[in-house]
Write a structure and sequence with these properties.
single chain, globular, 27% helix
Length: 116
Amino acid sequence: MHYKTFTLKGQNILEPVSDLVRRHYDDEESYVSEYIGGFLIVYEDYSFLNSNQLMVCIRFDSTESEKGVITIEVIAGGAGRGVLFGDIFGSENRRINDFEDRLANFCREKNITLEE
């Protein structure tokens, strides 16, 4: 299992960042749990290299959004440890890095501070 936490800082960022995360994982097979102060998105993604499904979870924490702070955690796991490939190709990290790239580009365009 691999994970990464991102902290975003800026003014009036709740709605645009929330929309970005929701659009990125807008899939009828995704599970979305709404709660006071954020939401959780969980979905499975097929790993061709490991021939199995891996689970990706995105936790969006907006409890400090009035202070201009949003925290996003991305957790990916379940790709397995194949006898031939193991972690060499990094299926789990690739899912996290794809999200990070999209988030970083968005933050640059919107002048939002992104911290890891």
